[in-house]
Amino acid sequence: MHYWLMKSEPHVFSIDDLIHSPKKTAGWEGVRNYQARNMLRDDMKKGDLVFFYHSSCTPPGIVGTAEIVREGYPDESAFDPRSAYYDPKSSPDNPRWFQVDIKFLQKFEEPFTISELRTHPQLSEMIVLRKGNRLSITPVAKKEWDFILKLVG
DNA sequence: GCCAACGTTGGC
DNA sequence: GCCAACGTTGGC
Q: Which of these, A67, A107, A126, A143, has the minimum number of CB atoms within 10 Å of its CB?
């Protein structure tokens, strides 16, 4: 069992969008970064738990949790010329980009903001807090996961 | 809107 | 394979 943090800009796909998706489940499509792709394809397993993070908004922060319900499979948005995520170098025969499906678990009553995350020494190693971090998917340590959930109550 | 950080691209 | 230029991310 592993833990993850996944960033999304809420105007593109928010935790409320996830809640309103069929079966509260959605494909995490559109990742176009190799490091994140490798995690989607190789490391994220069914049953792994996810912090859903809103970025590029006010305030940025963790807004809830979700669960991996389908492991890595080709991201079909890369095959669609009409998609904003289209990548002609990816094909069904040789897919370059992958996605997982996540299912909504809970929404926090209040976002756990990045500024609050930074106030806790127990969370100072979180990758998402590192200066210059731009990865949209990052692993979370179990003790970080437990600590945050305990604070959320 | 700014800008630091970092990934990608492409000429050589 | 180097590296400058460029594009993107994302907090502030």
A: A143
Q: Are A127 and A139 in contact (CB under 8 A)?
A: yes
DSSP A124: T
Question: Does the pLDDT value for residue A88 go beyond 90?
Answer: no
Q: Which residue is nearest to nucleotide B5 (CA to C1')?
A: A132
Nucleotide nearest to A59 (CA to C1'): C11
Q: Which tens digit of pLDDT belongs to each residue from A109-151?
A: 999 999 999 999 999 999 999 998 889 999 999 999 999 999 9
Q: From the Cβ of A41, is strand C under 7 Å away?
A: no
Sheet of A61-74, strands arranged across: A25-27, A98-113, A61-74, A49-54, A3-8, A137-140
Q: Which residues lie across from A25 on neighbouring strands?
A: A103
- Residue A10, pLDDT above cutoff 90: yes
How many secondary structure helices (H) and strands (E) does chain A include? Answer: 4, 6
Both tokens of A49, joined, read 């738990």
pTM of the entire structure?
0.95
